[in-house]
Each structure stands twice: as C-alpha cells, then as structure tokens.
C-alpha cells in the first residue's frame, strides 16, 4: 500500500497556487472552510480531531491558563487537544509527524518537532525533539542540525522548510510509514511582512513549490492543504492599551520595565493575529469591557457567550469576550503606554514571554541605523559562547502588511485542500474523515 503524505503548506491560497505548478499537480483543488480563529494551533487541532474548538479546546495559538495565572503560547503537549485524533482513526497504521503542532506525547510512531535547547547559561540554540531519540542523531548526521527559523533577509524561512522537507523524505525512505504529516511554514514569513499580493509573496510561493517538488514526486498518495490564507492588513489595534487607559488592565513594574499583571487586571486581551481573547475577571465588568473594545477603530465584532457559540468557540479556555478585527486590521499585545517602559523582551524574538503574538518580530527596527551592526555583534558573542541578546525588534508595528485569523471574506483568500477529492469545498471538520479514509485504502 502506498503511504499517504499530508503536506500542510501554511498560507497557501488559490491566488498563490497560480505560481506553484508542482503543488497544483497534486490533485483536484477544493476550498477549505476554516474555523474561527483561523490560526495554526486551532486549525491543526480541528483537522486532526474533526471537531470545533468548543470540543477540542484549542481556542488559539495560546490562551490565559486561569489555573496557573499565566498567558502561555505555543505549548507542545498533545494532551492539550481534547478528543480522539487522526493518529488513532485508522488503527494498525505506522504514523509519522514532521513538525505539525502539539506533537510531544502524541501516539505517533515517528516524530520530529522544533524544540530549542535552553542552556544553563541562558543561551538558546535551535534544535528538535524526536521519537525515537535515535532519529535525532540520524537526521543531524545526514541533514545537519535543525536550522533556526530565519526571520530576516530575503526568502526568510526557506532553510527551515527545506530541512523539514528533507527530513520527511529521509523518514519516508528509511521507515516507510503508512501516514506521514509534514508542516511547511515558509509562506508565513514574507506574506505577513510584505502582504500576500506583491512580488515577495510570489517569490516565496515559487521557492516553496520548488522545494516541495521532490517530496511531491515520491511514490505515495499526496494531499496538500493549508490552515488559513494571509490577507492584506496594515492597521494595528492596541486593544490592551485601550483596556489599560479605561482602568481595566493593570501592570507591575520591575527594573523600570512594565509587565502585564493578569492576577489583578479586571480585563486584558491575549492578542492572536486578527482575534483576541479578552479575559474579564468579574462579570460585572463585561458590559464596560465590551463597550471599550467595540469603540476601537479596526474592531469588527465583539463576541459574547452567544457569539462564541455561533462560531463553535464557546470553550472554557476562551476569553469571556472574543474580539475579531476588521479585514485590514490586527491586534497587538502591547500594554505599555510609553516605549521607555516596555519590557526588554519586547525588542527580542521571544514567542514564549510575550502575552500575545508579535509580528513585529519579522522586522529589524527600521528606525535604528545601527540595527544590523548590533545584530552582527550579538551573533559574534553567540559564536564565541557568550550570552547575548538580539534587541533588534521594533516597537512600532506599522511595517506589518499581512495577517490572518478572521474567517476569509473571499474563497480566493482562504485555505485549500488538494488531492483525490470530488467536491469543490470542504469544512475543516471534514478533513479528519477524508484523511482517515485515504489512509485505510
């Protein structure tokens, strides 16, 4: 039986497919209708479980863990997904996961997922976690170390995608799994940085199409899909600053820097691209909080319990309110009112300490004439084994030109699924059944 390879090309839309001849030949093209929020973790959980966020519990790329009193993004434990997943939908199959999210602890036979090394002296090195552990040594010996997810420079991210694709081919050749899932993040970078319609987006699409050609040519059944489409966006919405100005959000101060205080705030938002979960401690503050958010330019909807239920987002992990941005807007996580009070991690690529997503990490600060020199000095310190900080991220989010998260207004701006399918469109909740059927052939 030929193995089934499921390739998740983040950001793939019908518009970009016109520049990707290798991917276009993978089969019939159908529209894929995403869930809200249309972000990586929520969509992948839906694709794997066939259920809505209200059932699988992945309400975003992160949320406020009320029992811990912490905002945590990009967790990796598979047990955070509630409900049965694709891995067990076709019993007896040998399964492999290359970089789909919530991989650690999943019942897959083979696994590769990003897992940096946090050294005791504070340094951080890119690396991956594998199962079995021997797979790590094999991949490093044949492909080199797991590469840093490159944020800056032309065609940022292609090195990571090329390594992931090569790892998938290595596993396919050596282990011959029956089901292989592969996550290819390349389009995420330049489409958020420059927008989805410019020459940079077309170049990125062509680059990932060329990189995928060898994997698409393997002797296997292939399905290509995406989680969301990235659309033009140029209006940042500072939702937490509005809540702070209204007296609802509180901060605490250390070393002259301000930090979000979720324990005492009456309301605060976890910003996630074009969706923000707003956590309101006291129900008496709901109406006021909703009014503050609804008045913000760039806010399309503010969902209460009934609104969340309408979109299948009424899970206990969701905020008491959920804000959805207008098509050309997106939410920042910023809560400080003066940049000289911003925490030091705001100027870094630091996806775990920021209480929300920060696409400004895709840029080097254009207002700093010495930013590249300082970055080079930091890299030199790293190579010499010293501790370093790469403080190059701007505090002005204006350069961002693409975002996602709200449901697409046009099919051409939404995700797709390509393979041996009969219909013109599918719900994201149908994909698990489609893939399980193909895997059992």
Automatic annotation (TrEMBL):
| Residues that span the membrane, as ranges | none
Q: Name one GO molecular function term.
A: hydrolase activity
Gene3D superfamilies found in the cross-reference section: Alkaline Phosphatase, subunit A
Q: What is this protein called?
A: Alkaline phosphatase family protein
User: Where on the tree of life does the source sit, at the highest rank?
Assistant: Bacteria
Write down the species.
Nonomuraea turkmeniaca
Q: Which InterPro entries match?
A: Alkaline_phosphatase_core_sf, Phosphodiest/P_Trfase
Lineage of the native species? Bacteria, Bacillati, Actinomycetota, Actinomycetes, Streptosporangiales
